[in-house]
């Protein structure tokens, strides 16, 4: 259920008029709904419990890169979430947010020695390793610390996630993961290294998947590999199916998390019974977008209306540096006026002030607007703030968390002077 709804006097986040937030904190500002974050996380956690998976049997590792604000991480951590990180910086965020490092898994193709050391010193749950050189490096770093690193190999099941090429990651010619036909050999290498303990297998085939068929296909391939490994005496303790469930930006109808998980657990249970002699194997997930995407909006104010010969532009104070997805993936975000007007609607491109033609947030939208109107760019909770930059020396937006009637500033707006504070002029 959406927690961003119209009432008589405009658009609300839970019980708070978004216009009040814009007035108090200025624009552009990201606004997140605590109820929405909670519901979206519990869709995973409750489905796991409903299929008899407690803390030992399943772990939801929220993908930190989708929205890494400390308040979001803290909330999810309190609900029992683990964390999927892709950098040492994200690990430090999880720690600063009070997250449990024992529930952290470390993904990514390019882990540095320093990041490995940091993660080992905090005893994270598992490294998702993507290549043989990475196995050797991790083994060396762990040896130098007299530790054993738990590893899972990210395999590339070569299934087509049928999503945008930039967010599809499970195909053969992709930089991610270990090719399926090399997986067995890579596991043998991992098992032979004394400072590594092979504990799992993982895959992540892409993002914004509307249908779970490719995920279940990937699961089948992962299971097939687990059987081959078992025959070689390598027994896995967990399967990690990655993230990737999509959300509704416009008219999309993504599979319900509960339905996806019930199909997934049914397959895993059948396999355990028939092939895996009932052995315990825990299941991990790495959802990002499906937890935060529709839990956030970006508030912006119309600066100017430009009525050109062929197009109308609404120039707003948010830009591609605040929300990169339209410029980067031609992504579609809903645009809602905080105040509904009776005036005649015109077709607008909603664009930012950045000096790039790619700086647009929405195209060809019917809106009834006046200068100074406030807009909400919808579904902006995932890959919004985390992908924001300081291009054009624009301070990044403020972030606010709404909980019922209460509003908390969870990140201050950046001050332009801070943006060049680390720079110096040669004497
Ligand atoms: C980005 C990412 C995720 C999260 O993907 P969503 O589509 O946001 O659910 C999970 N796992 C890995 C390895 C990722 O890179």
Structural key phrases:
single chain; 427 residues; alpha/beta; 9-stranded mixed beta sheet; 12 helices; binds pyridoxal-5'-phosphate
Give the number of DSSP strands. Answer: 21
CATH class of the largest domain: Alpha Beta
Which regions are unreliable across 5 or more consecutive residues at pLDDT < 50? none
Quaternary organisation: single chain
Bound compounds, each kind once, are: pyridoxal-5'-phosphate
- Total count of helical runs of at least 4 residues: 12
CATH homology superfamily of the largest domain: Alanine racemase
Mean pLDDT over all positions: 95
| Structural category | alpha/beta
Tally of separate domains: 2
What summary fits the major beta sheet?
9 strands, mixed
Q: Terminal Cα separation, in Å?
A: 58 Å
Helicity, in percent? 25-40%
CATH architecture of the largest domain: Alpha-Beta Barrel
CATH topology heading of the largest domain: TIM Barrel
β-sheet strand percentage: 15-25%
Computed over alpha carbons, the radius of gyration is: 23 Å
Shape: globular
Topology of helices and strands:
Elements: E1 4-7, E2 10-13, E3 16-17, H1 18-25, E4 29-33, H2 34-50, E5 58-63, H3 70-78, E6 82-85, H4 88-96, E7 104-106, H5 113-121, E8 126-129, H6 132-144, E9 149-156, E10 178-179, H7 180-192, E11 196-202, H8 213-231, E12 238-240, H9 257-274, E13 282-285, H10 289-292, E14 296-307, E15 312-316, H11 325-329, E16 335-337, E17 346-351, E18 360-367, E19 374-377, E20 398-403, E21 406-411, H12 416-419
Parallel strand pairs: 4-20, 5-6, 5-13, 6-7, 7-8, 8-9, 9-10, 9-11, 11-12, 12-13, 15-17
Antiparallel strand pairs: 1-2, 2-3, 4-14, 14-15, 14-19, 16-19, 17-18, 20-21
Helix pairs in contact: 2-9, 5-6, 8-9
The protein binds pyridoxal-5'-phosphate.
Residues 63, 65-66, 84, 107, 204, 207, 242-244, 286-290, 382 line the site of pyridoxal-5'-phosphate.
């Amino acid at each position: 259920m959406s927690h961003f709804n119209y009432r008589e006097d405009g658009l609300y986040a839970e019980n708070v008029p978004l216009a009040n937030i814009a007035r108090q904190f200025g624009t552009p500002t990201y606004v997140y709904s605590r109820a929405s974050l909670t519901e979206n996380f519990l869709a995973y956690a409750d489905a796991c419990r409903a299929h008899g998976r407690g803390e030992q049997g399943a772990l939801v590792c929220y993908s930190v890169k989708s929205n890494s604000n400390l308040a979001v991480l803290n909330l999810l951590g309190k609900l029992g979430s683990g964390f999927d990180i892709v950098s040492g910086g994200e690990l430090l965020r999880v720690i600063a947010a009070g997250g449990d490092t024992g529930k952290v898994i470390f993904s990514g193709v390019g882990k540095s020695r320093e990041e490995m050391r940091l993660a080992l010193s905090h005893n994270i749950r598992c490294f998702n390793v993507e290549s043989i050189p990475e196995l050797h490096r991790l083994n060396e770093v762990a040896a130098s610390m007299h530790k054993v690193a738990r590893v899972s190999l990210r395999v590339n099941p070569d299934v087509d996630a049928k999503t945008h090429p930039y967010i599809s990651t499970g195909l053969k010619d992709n930089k991610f993961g270990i090719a399926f036909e090399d997986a067995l050999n890579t596991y043998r290498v991992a098992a032979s290294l004394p400072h590594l303990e092979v504990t799992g297998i993982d895959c992540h085939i892409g993002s914004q998947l509307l249908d779970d068929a490719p995920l279940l296909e990937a699961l089948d391939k992962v299971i097939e590999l687990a059987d081959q490994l078992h025959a070689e005496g390598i027994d896995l303790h967990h399967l990690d199916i990655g993230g990737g469930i999509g959300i509704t930006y416009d008219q999309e109808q993504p599979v319900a998390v509960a339905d996806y998980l019930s199909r997934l657990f049914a397959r895993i249970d059948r396999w355990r019974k028939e092939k895996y002699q009932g052995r315990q194997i825990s299941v991990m997930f790495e959802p990002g977008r499906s937890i935060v995407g529709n839990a956030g909006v970006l508030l912006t104010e119309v600066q100017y209306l430009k009525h050109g010969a062929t197009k109308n532009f609404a120039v707003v104070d948010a830009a591609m540096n605040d929300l990169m997805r339209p410029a980067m993936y031609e992504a579609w975000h809903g645009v809602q006026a905080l105040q509904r007007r009776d005036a005649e609607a015109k077709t607008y491109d909603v664009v930012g002030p950045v000096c790039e033609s790619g700086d647009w947030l929405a195209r060809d939208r019917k809106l009834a607007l006046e200068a100074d109107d406030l807009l909400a760019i919808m579904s902006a909770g995932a890959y919004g703030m985390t992908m924001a930059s300081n291009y054009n020396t624009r301070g990044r937006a403020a972030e606010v968390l709404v909980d019922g009637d209460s509003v908390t500033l969870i990140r201050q707006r950046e001050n332009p002077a801070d943006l060049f504070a680390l720079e110096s002029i040669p004497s």
